[in-house]
């Protein structure tokens, strides 16, 4: 509503309320002191600029009369317009969105021994230390660490005379002994290792070499070593040690289903002073030929459960089925040769047969043990025999003559000559070095 006030004018006025004024003064006197005229004007129309239209939230206008109260609706993440009825202006309001619940993932536990004291000092690990961090390097003063007492006559004398102040270390002989011990004690992973001892000729000392090899291994190693007599023609391996049982490979085959642990198996073997276990062959000539490939596999499977090294004293029948089963499991080979011409030739023919039947890799990695206690050794050139085998195998070892071995009876490891023990230990070290440390390598 617009109000307009009109003042008196000197111009002629129109008739008001049916009274015509006679003059200007009379007209002025006839008019009221003030005059109010009411005029209805159209509502102002707001034209929205183009820049505002480009960012407008709605295409149609909003009637303020319709909106009588603030309205807040919408899903989380949308914008709602509130219109104030009195001030006729719009306010954009974004509703508060409740934050989603954050799932906390707990950190992985720290296993004991996976961090060091340096990690603790560097701030990598915080918390209580594990027992694995209490190492000797950390707790013992370097200057107060005492070296072990030396071995050997002269180093031990100086060590004692100086009240343990002067330690010359082990003698040369002791150092060499410990080096061979370390080679023999090579640790193996992934199951038992099988080492057949074989040749095509009997009487060359194959059983004796098997016994010496087993004693040298068992006297040093911390695990178990067994020698199996797989000779189908009545072997004599069990006669090389003090026999403690009359059980044979046949008993192992018959009782295989009832053997539940090493205690059950140990009742069927004989053990000597070096902790070498020996499993005898059949002594009944009517049953010796019955020990075949399947029987050997039963015995070998049981032995592999409880022993780390399995030596097999093979017979002279190289084409026997037991030989095939033995070679299929072999990780290393020991070929025994005598010191005579025919014994050396038959040992070489054994290598040729193995190469022709697909065992060339075993031949190249084999070790030849030359038993110099056989007849005719003094008449041949052992150097030439060694040179021949050196072109075909990995290593050659001479086993010297020893009266105890020549007797063909029970072998006492401690009563052997030092040179004999040394040769047996060297053979054991070469065999251990030739076998894979991990299965499949």
UniProtKB/TrEMBL annotation:
<keyword id="KW-0282">Flagellum</keyword>
<protein>
    <submittedName>
        <fullName>MinD-like ATPase involved in chromosome partitioning or flagellar assembly</fullName>
    </submittedName>
</protein>
<feature type="region of interest" description="Disordered">
    <location>
        <begin position="1"/>
        <end position="26"/>
    </location>
</feature>
<dbReference type="GO" id="GO:0005524">
    <property type="term" value="F:ATP binding"/>
</dbReference>
<dbReference type="GO" id="GO:0009898">
    <property type="term" value="C:cytoplasmic side of plasma membrane"/>
</dbReference>
<keyword id="KW-0966">Cell projection</keyword>
<dbReference type="InterPro" id="IPR002586">
    <property type="entry name" value="CobQ/CobB/MinD/ParA_Nub-bd_dom"/>
</dbReference>
<keyword id="KW-0969">Cilium</keyword>
<dbReference type="Pfam" id="PF01656">
    <property type="entry name" value="CbiA"/>
</dbReference>
<dbReference type="GO" id="GO:0005829">
    <property type="term" value="C:cytosol"/>
</dbReference>
<dbReference type="GO" id="GO:0016887">
    <property type="term" value="F:ATP hydrolysis activity"/>
</dbReference>
<dbReference type="InterPro" id="IPR027417">
    <property type="entry name" value="P-loop_NTPase"/>
</dbReference>
<dbReference type="GO" id="GO:0051782">
    <property type="term" value="P:negative regulation of cell division"/>
</dbReference>
<dbReference type="InterPro" id="IPR050625">
    <property type="entry name" value="ParA/MinD_ATPase"/>
</dbReference>
<feature type="domain" description="CobQ/CobB/MinD/ParA nucleotide binding">
    <location>
        <begin position="199"/>
        <end position="326"/>
    </location>
</feature>
């Amino acid at each position: 509503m617009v109000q307009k006030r009109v003042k008196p004018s000197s111009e002629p006025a129109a008739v008001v309320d049916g009274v015509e004024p006679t003059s200007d003064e009379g007209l002025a006197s006839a008019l009221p002191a003030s005059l109010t005229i009411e005029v209805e004007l159209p509502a102002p129309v707001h034209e929205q600029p183009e820049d505002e239209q480009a960012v407008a939230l709605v295409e149609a206008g909003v009637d303020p009369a319709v909106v009588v109260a603030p309205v807040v609706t919408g899903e989380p993440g949308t914008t709602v317009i509130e219109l104030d009825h009195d001030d006729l202006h719009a306010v954009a309001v974004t509703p508060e969105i409740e934050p989603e619940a954050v799932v906390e993932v707990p950190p992985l536990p720290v296993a004991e021994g996976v961090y060091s004291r340096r990690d603790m000092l560097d701030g990598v690990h915080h918390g209580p230390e594990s027992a694995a961090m209490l190492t000797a390097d950390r707790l013992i003063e370097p200057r107060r660490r005492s070296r072990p007492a030396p071995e050997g006559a002269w180093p031990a004398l100086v060590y004692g005379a100086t009240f343990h102040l002067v330690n010359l270390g082990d003698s040369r002989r002791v150092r060499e002994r410990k080096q061979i011990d370390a080679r023999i004690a090579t640790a193996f992973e992934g199951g038992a290792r099988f080492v057949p001892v074989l040749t095509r000729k009997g009487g060359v000392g194959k059983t004796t070499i098997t016994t010496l090899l087993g004693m040298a291994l068992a006297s040093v190693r911390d695990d178990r070593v067994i020698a199996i007599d797989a000779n189908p023609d009545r072997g004599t391996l069990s006669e090389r040690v003090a026999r403690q049982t009359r059980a044979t490979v046949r008993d192992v085959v018959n009782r295989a289903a009832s053997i539940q642990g090493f205690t059950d198996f140990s009742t069927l073997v004989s053990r000597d002073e070096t902790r070498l276990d020996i499993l005898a062959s059949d002594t009944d000539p009517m049953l010796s030929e019955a020990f075949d490939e399947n029987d050997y596999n039963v015995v070998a499977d049981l032995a592999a459960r409880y022993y780390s090294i399995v030596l097999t004293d093979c017979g002279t029948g190289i084409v026997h089925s037991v030989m095939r089963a033995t070679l299929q499991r072999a990780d290393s080979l020991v070929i025994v040769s005598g010191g005579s011409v025919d014994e050396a030739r038959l040992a070489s023919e054994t290598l040729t047969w193995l190469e022709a039947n697909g065992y060339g890799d075993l031949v190249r990695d084999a070790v030849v043990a030359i038993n110099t206690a056989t007849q005719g050794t003094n008449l041949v050139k052992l150097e030439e025999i060694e040179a021949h085998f050196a072109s075909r195998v990995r290593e050659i070892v001479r086993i010297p003559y020893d009266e105890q071995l020549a007797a063909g009876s029970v072998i006492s490891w401690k009563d052997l000559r030092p040179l004999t023990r040394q040769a047996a230990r060297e053979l054991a070290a070469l065999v251990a070095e030739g076998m894979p440390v991990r299965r499949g390598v």
